[in-house]
Amino acid sequence: AMASPAASPDSSVPSGPTSDSENLSPDELELLAKLEEQNRLLEADSKSMRSVNGSRRNSGSSLVSSSSASSNLGHLEEDTWILWGRVVNEWDEWRKKKEKLLKELIRKGIPHHFRAIVWQLLCSATDMPVKNQYSELLKMSSPCEKLIRRDIARTYPEHEFFKGQDSLGQEVLFNVMKAYSLVDREVGYCQGSAFIVGLLLMQMPEEEAFCVFVRLMQEYRLRELFKPSMAELGLCIYQFEYLLQEQLPELNVHFRSQSFLTSMYASSWFLTLFLTTFPLPVATRVFDIFMYEGLEIVFRVGLALLQFNQAELVQLDMEGMSQFFQKVIPHQFDSCPDKLILKASQVKFNAKKMKR
């Protein structure tokens, strides 16, 4: 078994050239350089957009930098496919010796057709004994069935796959949730988890999705998060508040003055890993990173969102902020998820301090 993602090295240390690079071939080194260059372009681009800040006059300059970033993407696309094929074939070597490049690639987004296999590899769910119990579990009945049925209709109601009571999506979603409630009697069924399972089912067959979900619950703090006591969610909120106070003191004071509690906006971030915040294309990018880096990415993205919006938020009252979180924040990155990911990767996060 691999170490759980929570044990990743302290991310607040700037990642300079690591020992990784000696295991990389020249073309992999070149790719790493390309990816870093792309980040630089994106960053310059969001800076120029911020300085322009709506004034039409020099909006041209920001368009230029963003289009050069995207034409650069065109021929990266092909390389990326070939590369991901290699990553999957030589998985153990990448996982052990090319961590920095793998991390960077995952942050750039796993190509759609590779997601199913890469997610399974990332959480070591490729050969789990529990997979063989799956069909047996489906024949049993679970005390949670009524609850599961009730929530399934509310999971991705807009998505084709899950539309209608007799849709294939609702069927398999029910199966996986029920099977899980039988292997983990203490947690049983927990609200919110259907969004995670639903996302897995959009990528892979139900047996595989079941195995990945079992792994996520066991190894990624999710089981703790979904226990009936909700104590772990309380801890996440407490940790997030600490970061907020430390890094955005002005916003923190404003939230408090308006009695706008962290749990009001951040609970769903942790419980559904942003799957109920962002449209799927953006949320899936965050999920890619979650599969490799664990729950830390939720803290990073959450803080990035607050940094982006601090200037607007401090001018709003409680009602205004609630609306802003529901209506504005979800769609800010529809056209450029990369900017969110880049900002999140720059957030200062000290894992040791969080543990303490």
Automatic annotation (TrEMBL):
Q: Where is this region: Disordered?
A: 1-29, 43-71
Note the PROSITE patterns from the entry: TBC_RABGAP (PS50086)
Q: Which keywords label this protein?
A: Coiled coil, Phosphoprotein
Coiled-coil region(s): none
**What GO terms are given for molecular function?**
GTPase activator activity; small GTPase binding
State where composition is biased (Low complexity).
1-17, 49-71
Pinpoint the Rab-GAP TBC domain residues.
109-294
Pfam families (alphabetical): RabGAP-TBC (PF00566)
PANTHER family cross-referenced by the UniProt entry:
ECOTROPIC VIRAL INTEGRATION SITE 5 LIKE (PTHR47219:SF12), RAB GTPASE-ACTIVATING PROTEIN 1-LIKE (PTHR47219)
Query: What is the protein name stated in its UniProt record?
Result: EVI5L protein
Species name: Columbina picui
Traced from the root, the source organism's taxonomic lineage reads: Eukaryota, Metazoa, Chordata, Craniata, Vertebrata
